[in-house]
Write a structure and sequence with these properties.
heterodimer; A: 277 residues; alpha/beta; Rossmann fold; six-stranded antiparallel β-sheet; 15 strands; 21% helix; B: 341 residues; alpha+beta; 2 domains; four-stranded antiparallel β-sheet; 14 strands; binds flavin-adenine dinucleotide; binds iron/sulfur cluster; binds FE2/S2 (inorganic) cluster
């Protein structure tokens, strides 16, 4: 036996709840076998989940650190691990290790600022952690705007929580949009980047962007068009990961390992990196 | 300093092998050398450059990380790590010794990789000054002195004798055990040997290769260099250069179902493979050019940027000798940055 700690050796996690969010996204609640949180984390950090024999994959911890009882992961079905998880039932054991990556600077840079969160699709997963953290410490932040879009109404993640809790908070404005018109939807229709331009936000905000690369690209252009400076905008990168600790050599963009120095980046920092993400 | 006659080198090997597994470069029938576990009858190769680098001993091509037992919905994690046995790697060239400094900076920084760390603690390195460098050698480019190899114990070989100098506590303890088979000596013969080596090195074809113009902060300058197209054009993406390289450290983690449980193991991977960065929503390195560029930018720009200017190449020459299309890091260093370096 070897008594050293080893980050690659995970802990056991137990799935205690499975919520069907959209046709291809489910949210899983995970605790240790003795019912605790597997480890502490900061908003924006990730964890490696695995099913032995199937594989290991990286996911954002979508629950807020202020939730002291459990962690949640919103997972989109797209390959071996994610498909396997989608057929898992309550009580299923998985493995979990982390936390990995740099969090959003919620306690220093974001403090006292008006915040603008912009998400597309499953990109809401990392943002939900920050949004709920900022709602928990509501008096530390200014106004909060949330723009969230998906393909259809059925593809909006955390819909119930958004309507029942977020939209009900004072000083929190929620702006939802779907790509195409749909029966039963009287909200906004159109892509996120265009909606952001239409909403014509004031630039006295710190913005956080998460979603598919193409959405990030056009929304970033849109925000800059409104007069935002890249130093006011944060986003996350997603690259293939295996180790999570900057050693397997897989997730670098230039000299930065996204698993260690990301996934959270300020948009002006991204300009310093080669365009290989 | 201590010495023994070359005729009695087997008694030194036998003494070391009493307490630890000993690996030495031994000849294969095709004339190349491979590290082989020493036992009576295994003959030390005259060739210095081994086909595979000694990184194998500390970061093996394949290694089990842990096991899982599953029953129903339950999983049990079995920590299969054990303490490594003591072992000694003999005959490591100066360049290959330097490669451990490069790997240490990856695996021994927080969070420490316990698999590698355990082997580093239990393994001793006996290096060997280069008497016969090959045409593909360019260690001097990276400030490595082939006449002054580091390691726990350094050795020099003359026509008739083998000289030993310990550099670390581990080396001193090991050399103390060899007192019965070696004798105290002066350094004169070794000094003469060093001069000889340096004279040979100066005449090598790659003696003028320089790192000038490379290092941290050069990403913007070289990333879009048009020369990458031409350099990478014929690359087969076979990964040979990464596997023979003593400083390449990329790995994959995989699961194997044994029928009785699951073994999670890691194995070498290569940035030259298209699978390496493939994700559900696409691949950020779509063509071989991008993968090829990654390998060399990492060695010459990204790694030094993160490691106080240290390059992730030691000039061992293995990729020069083994690439099926005769592409290699020297050609890249001569071409990238062009005249403006
Ligand atoms: C920092 C970070 C945070 C993330 N957060 C989240 C999150 O909160 N929620 C979420 O849903 N996702 C998240 N992801 C993405 C998630 O990690 C991937 O969706 C996950 O790794 C997919 O794993 P998989 O085993 O299901 O897919 P894989 O089986 O690895 O498949 C991925 C894709 O590659 C293809 N593929 C894989 N292997 C092969 C092969 N051998 N041959 C051919 N094709 C192959 C598959 O067809 C598929 O399209 C995050 C990723 C990162 C890096
Ligand atoms: S890049 Fe080539 S010459 Fe340099 S250390 Fe690796 S194998 Fe040796
Ligand atoms: S050995 Fe040569 S052909 Fe093979 S991946 Fe390396 S550069 Fe390409
Ligand atoms: S995931 Fe291994 S280096 Fe980032």
């Amino acid at each position: 036996m070897n008594n050293r700690t080893e980050t690659l050796i995970p802990k056991i996690g137990v799935i205690t709840d499975v919520r069907i969010d959209t046709p291809d996204i489910k949210t899983f609640r995970v605790v240790t076998p003795d019912g605790k949180k597997a480890f502490d984390h900061r908003p924006g950090q990730c964890a490696m989940l695995s099913i032995p024999g199937v594989g290991e994959a990286m996911f954002s911890i979508t629950s807020s650190p202020t939730n002291t009882e459990y962690m949640e992961f919103s997972i989109k079905k797209c390959g071996c691990v994610t498909e396997w998880l989608h057929q898992a039932e309550v009580g299923q054991n998985i493995t979990i290790r982390g936390p990995y990556g740099n969090p959003f600077p919620v306690d220093d840079v974001f403090a006292g600022k008006n915040l603008l969160f912009i998400a597309g699709g499953v990109g809401l997963a990392p943002l939900r952690s920050v949004i709920n953290y900022c709602r928990h410490y509501r008096d530390r932040y200014g106004d909060i705007d949330i723009v969230y879009g998906s393909r259809s109404k059925d593809d909006l993640l955390d819909y119930k929580e958004i309507i029942d809790e977020w939209a009900a908070d004072t000083g929190v404005n929620v702006h939802l949009t779907i790509d195409n018109p749909q029966e039963g939807w009287d909200g906004h229709v159109g892509f996120v980047p265009n909606y952001v331009k239409e909403l014509n936000f004031d630039t006295n905000k710190t913005a956080v962007l998460c979603g598919p690369p193409i959405m990030i690209k056009f929304t970033l252009e849109g925000l800059c068009g409104l007069g935002f400076d890249k130093t006011q905008i944060y986003t996350t990168l997603e690259l293939r990961m295996k180790c999570g600790v900057g050693k397997c050599g897989r997730c670098n963009v230039g000299s930065k390992y996204v698993c260690k120095e990301g996934p959270v980046f300020r948009c002006d920092e991204l300009d310093e990196l080669p365009s290989e993400y | 300093m201590r010495k023994c006659s070359l005729d009695s080198v087997n008694s030194v090997f036998a003494e070391i092998a009493k307490a630890a597994a000993l690996y030495i470069p031994a000849d294969r029938t095709d004339g190349s050398a491979v590290y082989t576990k020493w036992e009576e009858g295994v003959v030390w190769s005259k060739a210095l450059n081994t086909v595979r680098s000694p990184k194998d001993f500390f970061f093996p091509q394949m290694e089990n990380l842990m096991e899982f037992r599953t029953s129903g919905k339950n999983i049990e994690i079995v920590d299969t790590r054990s303490e490594a046995e003591d072992f000694v790697v003999f005959g490591v060239r100066a360049c290959d010794v330097k490669s451990f400094e490069i790997l240490d900076r990856v695996f021994l920084t927080d969070p420490v990789d316990s698999y590698y760390a355990t082997k580093r603690e239990h393994g001793a390195i006996i290096s060997m000054a280069c008497t016969r460098p090959s045409e593909t050698c360019f260690c001097k480019t990276f400030g490595i002195d082939p006449a002054e190899p580091a390691g726990d114990i350094s050795c020099w070989k003359t026509e008739t004798e083998l000289f030993f100098q310990s550099n670390t506590e581990k080396g001193a303890a090991l050399l103390a055990k060899l007192e019965g088979v070696t004798e105290e000596c002066t350094e004169e013969a070794v000094d003469a040997q060093k001069e000889k080596i340096n004279a040979v090195m100066a005449k090598l074809p790659l003696a003028d290769v320089t790192t000038e113009g490379f290092g941290g902060g050069k990403t913007k300058d070289y990333f879009n260099d048009p020369a990458w197209d031409e350099l990478s054009e014929a690359c087969l993406g076979c990964g040979t250069c990464t596997f023979v390289c003593p400083t390449c450290q990329c790995y994959d983690i995989k699961d194997f179902n044994t029928g009785k449980g699951v073994i999670r193991y890691r194995c070498w991977d290569s940035c030259m493979y298209s699978e390496f960065t493939r994700m559900a929503h696409g691949n950020n390195r779509l063509t071989q050019k991008e993968r090829f560029r990654q390998r060399f930018m990492h060695k010459l720009v990204y790694y030094p940027e993160n490691n106080d200017g240290l390059f992730s190449c030691v000039g061992c020459g293995r990729c020069l000798a083994k690439c099926p299309i005769s592409m290699n890091i020297v050609k890249v260093m001569k071409k990238i940055g062009g005249e403006n370096k």
